[in-house]
Amino acid sequence: MTQSAFTLTYGDNGVAWLKIDVPDEKMNTLQSAFVDQVTTVLEELKTKSDLKGMVVHSGKPDNFIAGADIKMLAACTTAEEAQQLAAQGQVLFSQLEALPFHVVAAIHGPCLGGGLELALACHSRVCSDDDKTRLGLPEVQLGLLPGSGGTQRLPRLVGVANSLDMILTGKQLRAKKAKKIGLVEESIPLSILLDVAEKQALKPKPNRKSSLQEWALGGNALGRSLVFDQAAKKTHEKTRGNYPAVDAILEVIKVGLQDDLKKGFDLEAKRFGELVMSPESAALRSIFFATTAMKKEHGADAEPKTVKRIGVLGGGLMGGGISHVSAVKAKLSTRIKDIANDGIKNAMNYNFKLLEKQRKRRIISKAEQQSKMLSISGGTDYTGFNHVDVVIEAVFEDLNLKHQMVKEIEENGNAQTIFATNTSSLPIHQIAQAAERPENVVGLHYFSPVEKMPLVEVIPHEGTSEQTIATVVALAKKQGKTPIVVGDKAGFYVNRILAPYMNEAASVLMAGEPIEHIDNALLDFGFPVGPITLLDEVGVDIGAKIMPILVAELGERFQGPDVFDVLLADNRKGRKTGKGFYKYDSKKKEVDKTVYKLLNIEPQQHAAAIDIAQRCSLMMLNEAARCLDEGVIKSARDGDIGAIFGIGFPPFLGGPFRYMDQVGIERIVELLTDCTDKYGERFQPCDKLVAMANEGQTFYS
Q: Where in the chain is the domain with CATH 3.90.226.10?
């Protein structure tokens, strides 16, 4: 007989204890198979007339319930089946809520999705003030809405504005914030969590019906309508109509508050079922499964060695960011080396500012801030580098300088020290040529700003040892990154697929299309920033440096229109010089129209936004397929994650490869062929796509 995840015990004082502990799993997740188990528990509780209260708690040491197991959604073949799953959850939680005694949820660790919906069905909630404790409804990030009553109970508990903020963004609240908005009654040390929950359970059930509910509804229909309109406007500015879950969330909450709870529940389950079947949710869930699988991978056939100390070469923007994720996220002793004291000062200041922001938001205390700063040190020589396990180099993109760095680390490090280079364009095998121990040399390409961007490309050259690869993959994960192992070819993967996309945007601009029209076209397609804005953010000088390398190594299709030299001659490097395609001296984002004269363009809108988006994205898709064919990436999955986490390829499309599957490879080849006739040879579909179209193949089975 299957062991139940739910165990009921009874205290002498009239308090029942419901422990949730999913057998053989690290995390508690809710599964459809538990329906019978929960029903049995509820039936038993209904027979107990002498109970004063109940505490619902977890049997796991570090999590309450991390949500529902989303694998069960993949088993649904119709919207009705998925709707039934949601309705089932609603019924069970409503039965829990209807128990005649005071039910208290004692929360420690992640309490997310279905876990929070269960806690909301309890009459009170108390949580530990531990940093592990997080409360949230992240379903929107999977293209869904909370389907077991969350859209109805949360607004009635914390108000419309707070609940919309949580449900529309999927954000997770720390204990302090959860208490502040009324989501939990108490935020207390873990050591007394169950004692406090027990005392709470012995009190009468809280009666919140009247005044709080009125306040939650915004007081009146007009106030409520205003809150919804503002939320809809703000959200649509971000999503641009690409995420159907957002509209469904707004509709379901509104109906529940305007009509009644039953109508709210019914619509919640219905919309949940429809969203499960949407292509957007399927794509977003595929990202979740891919990243979950990647967490278990080493990237190589070897065990990673233990890393305790990190060295960072260069105190610039990248060096500052790399030292931050090494010291603060990975909790490793970090030593920065720069040729000048100003570089060290800059990196230390960079770290201090990021930590100060956290301290001001009360995420960390003053003592924690000081402790984290003490784990970072720096100097202009190699003091302490003989004890360093991994050195991450973030100096200028100059091969001779990189060679010098390799030699100096081999002299000042130890025989096992790994030299990881954060180059964005130079081939790793060329950098390794200067090494006596090339097996310790590897590429570790971060994206800017390092503390925010989730991706890292790990680039071994032919001589890199398996242990070196496994060690830097494990290090990147400790730094909070998602690493993908990519081939040692010019541009690696992310910059290689980004370059033709950016070049095409520049070609569209040189054909006279207005800057904001181009950017808006790609924003509507789903990218987080437009390509022209991105060029300003990355820096025109960086683009000018990378393009010739790509042309030399990969051919003429990487030759973009000649705009870089003209812009650099006018000192237009983008945001960093306060001068680019956009103006940076005013609060409002606006195009610097003098750039048109400089480039000899008469801006006039001719092409439809969808055609511009298609032109630019097709160049990226074609190059991504080439990268897979050449072994630059190991799988379509890695290519999708790299594009989404590295350059913000629209997540709701699932990445370049899932998107090509969805559109159909044959159709992609047709579109590329059409563009070849219109715009030139650079659009020629690659051999792999042509072969796949002929064979009727897809990237994913």
A: 6-277
* 6-277: in CATH 3.90.226.10: yes
Pairing of the two strands 376-379 and 441-446: unpaired
CA-wise closest residue to 499 among 538, 525, 472, 467? 538
H/E stretch holding 155: helix 150-158
What digits encode the pLDDT tens for the residues 5-28? 999 999 999 999 999 999 999 999
**What mean pLDDT value characterizes the chain?**
93
Q: Do 31 and 72 touch, CB atoms closer than 8 A?
A: yes
Q: How many CB atoms lie within 10 A of CB 111?
A: 32
Percentage of the chain with pLDDT > 90?
80
What is d(CA 613, CA 441) in angstroms, rounded to the nearest whole number?
39
Structure confidence at residue 214 as a pLDDT band (50, 70, 90): very low
Catalytic residues, which ones? 457
Q: What is the Cα–Cα distance from 580 to 572, expressed in whole angstroms?
A: 5
CATH assignment of 309-485, given 3.40.50.12780, 3.40.50.720, 3.90.180.10, 3.40.50.740?
A: 3.40.50.720
Please answer whether residues 623 and 489 qualify as being in contact, where contact means their C-beta atoms are separated by less than 8 angstroms. no
Fold of 494-632+664-695: N-(1-d-carboxylethyl)-l-norvaline Dehydrogenase; domain 2 (1.10.1040)
- Condensed to tens digits (0 to 9), the pLDDT of residues 272-331 reads 999 999 999 999 999 999 999 998 898 998 999 999 999 999 999 999 999 999 999 999
- Measured CA to CA, the distance from residue 381 to residue 341 in angstroms comes to 10
Entry pTM: 0.91
